[in-house]
Structures are given as C-alpha cells and as structure tokens.
Amino acid sequence: MLCQSWQWNHCKGRMLMAWNSGDLPLHTGVLPPFLYGKGIHNNWVLNEAMSSDFRFVFDASWTISSFHLYDPEPWSSGVVGNSKVSGVEMRSWEYVGNSHIGALYGSLLYHEANYSSLVKLLKCDGNYIFFNPMENFVYPYGYQSSFRLWKERILHPWRKRRIMACIDGINSLEKIPDCSLKDHMKLSAPLEFSFSLESLLPFIADKNKTIVLAVAGYSYKDMLMSWVCRLRRLLITNFMICALDQETYQFSVLQGLPVFKDPLAPSNISFNDCHFGTRCFQRVTKVKSRIVLTILKLGYNVLLSDVDVYWFENPLPLLYTFGPAFLLAQSDEYKTTGPINLPRRLNSGFYFAHCDDSTIAAMERVVKHAATSGLSEQPSFYDTLCGEGGSYRVGDNRCVEPETNLTVYFLDRDLFPNGAYLDLWRKKNVKAACVKKGCLVLHNNWISGRLKKLERQVLSGLWDYESGTRMCLQSWHNFKLTS
C-alpha cells in the first residue's frame, strides 16, 4: 500500500530495523538505558550505526511492502480507547528522559547522520537495485556475476531508461527530509516525573496492595541500582524509590525507576560521610519511617528495604503468612545464641508493616518519638514498640506494644541475617554460604563507611549493576572488578 500511494511521513513513521550479527558490534557507542518504546531509541541506534561505519546501512522503505509486528502496548501505536493519541504526548516525561540520555551517550551531540544520504534499496522494472542519491549512482543487488556483466545484461539502453525513469519518479514523488533527531529532542525541557507518590501507588502495588520501598541519596546511587537490578532479576516489580535529593531523583528518572521526591528531606546530605553513627545518618533515617507512615495511611502495606540489603529470593510470600497487627523486622543481634529481641536490636533497615489501625497508630508513635530524638530512628523503633530496656518483650523474638496491641516479630536470622551474624560476609564464597543457610536476604550492615560497604558487596559477587554502562549485569556478562 505504501509503494502504491507513496503517502507516508518518512521521519515520523514506524521504524523497523534489522541487521546481521557478525563479529563486530552494531556501533562503537554504549547503549543508553533507554525506556524502550518511548522515543529516540531507534533513531539513536541508526545514527550510531551510520557514524560507526561497521555496517552498510541502507533504507528499504520503498521496497518492503508488508510486515507483521506484534505490539502488546496499545499506546505505542497511537490508539487509546476510541481516541488517537501519540505515545510521545501521553508520556512526555519519558520522551524527555530519553532525549537527555540520548544526548549524553554516543556521537549525537557532535555528529548527526544525514538520513537523506542513505543508500536506497529499490525495485525497478522487476530488479532490486541500490541507489546512492548523493552520487546519483546505481549498484546491483543479488547478482552473482561481475559488475561489468551486470551493466551489460541489466542496463541495456531500454532497461536503463526504465530504471532511471523509476528512480526519477521516486525522487519527484518524495523529497526525503533530513529528519534531524536533534530538532525533536526535548533537551531544554525540565527532567520531571509527572507522577506523585499518591498517583504512583496504584500502578506499582501488587495484588495485595504492597509496596517495596527504598529511600536513597545520590552517594548510594550505584548500590540503589544494584538493588533494583536484583529485584528485577527476581521478577519483583512492585518497588518504589524515595529520592532524598534532586540528583537521585533525576538519576532515577533516567534509569526508568518509579521515583518520587520527599519535599521534607534534609538538605546538605554528605556524599561520603552519611553512614551509621554520623549526624547525617541520623537525619536521613528519620525520612524512612515518615514516608512509610504516609504510605500506610494511603492504604498500602510497606516492605521497607535499605539498598544495602541483598535479596536472594522474594521474601514477600513468607511475610504474607503473618496477619495484621504484626510488624516484622530484622534483628540486629550478632550473637548466635540467646534472645534476638534484646534492647536496641531492632533493625529499621528491613521491616514489613501492614496498613491496619494498630500498625498505623504504632508508627505514628515511632515517628513522633524520632522527631524529638537526637539519635537515628532505629532506637525510636525499639524504645517505642518494645519499651525502654525491652520492657514489652515477650519471649526471645517478640515484643507487644500495650497501647496499640501491635506485635513486633523479630525475623529468623538464618533467613534474614544481619551483617554480623555468623560472619557471613567473611566467608570465601558469601553467596554459597548464604544459599546453603537458606537466606532470603543478607544485610550489608555492621560495617563503617560507604566505600568499605560498597567494596565488600562488589568483591563478594553480590552485585548486579555495571555503572560504566548504567545497565544491569546479565548472566552472559563476564564481570570482573578491576583496580
């Protein structure tokens, strides 16, 4: 139909690409972490392939008559309900994000390919030919004999006239525009996510109305991404990121993460001096309980996980076996024997809270206590829910807060070990030791300093992110830490 009418927009139409694999990559650049299907991606790849010159790139728009493309996303074809709306208009923030990273990667900023110069694959008078519009020259396609023999047999005067007439007809019917990608990239537009916390929740939550929440600042962006990559590998999609600063927010948007900003987050968060025991750490941790309380009041359960918690398996099926009025928290006790609910041994970096009245009332008390405390939120959790000195303790692994009747259950450390339990981080093969133990998660705590924490996790192999390419590591990657 296209060949008969010649009525289509060469710049804005659907693009279909195919290439041979071979020994060389398609282009020299690093593929940006595009949100696929949200604009820029195809044109960026084409630009890099033309610039790298590893392939003979040609345009077959005038020759391919039909194709079948399965596309499960209705908006990408411009059809939404009974109205016609383009994908770009519907998801402008995603298009803006792709525009920003498209400009940051590759050669686009200093070299843009000229689409009008592409060699065209044409079918004229029953023959397939390549036509170079810049040199006004015709090349044979698929002919086994020599170029001289092709000229003799194919380009007889009468056939040559018919082929050139075909080419002239195409040139007169369709003036090929340059299709400048830069002209369509929204580089000056602010990089803002168009969703608030309230509007994100129904899209992200699972069928049980549960959210996995992480709170992170820019100094932990690589650890955040390793955590995200691990959850994605486990096919866990109901996670959200609370950004403590604008840098983390923009980074998360460019990585395609469901993120929102905390307008009340503390300012001047230190890059390297915000670990356990620092004043920065004390201020930052109080954000977590406040955000969790907000989400609970909106009617969603929350699994709060610090980004230094490595997930071996999805713990939610086990956590769901506990009913309402239970707060399930990791124990920070390092001794292998004895009670695990001793004073100040509740770790507020990994806990699961139901959105029931008892839990909400108890969390309100925690947030209020933390707001007036000169310490981090962690002591506020224990002193509020287990009583000062552990006066509300029940047995070796529980506490019951008397006013709200909330039960705090300290999770089994064989399944949810902290960073000091059994010296798991010092094992020669950390992963094998944890898998043998049956760990669902492993907390990278009980270590001082961001760089030491990062080094320990990367060297252990419990790492799923390559910061150089900003891509999740895959099973086929041969990732090695180099000095």
From TrEMBL:
Gene Ontology molecular function terms on file: glycosyltransferase activity
Domain Nucleotide-diphospho-sugar transferase: 235-456
Domain of life: Eukaryota
Record InterPro entries: Nucl-diP-sugar_transferase (IPR005069), RAY1-like (IPR044575)
Protein name: Nucleotide-diphospho-sugar transferase domain-containing protein
Organism: Lithocarpus litseifolius
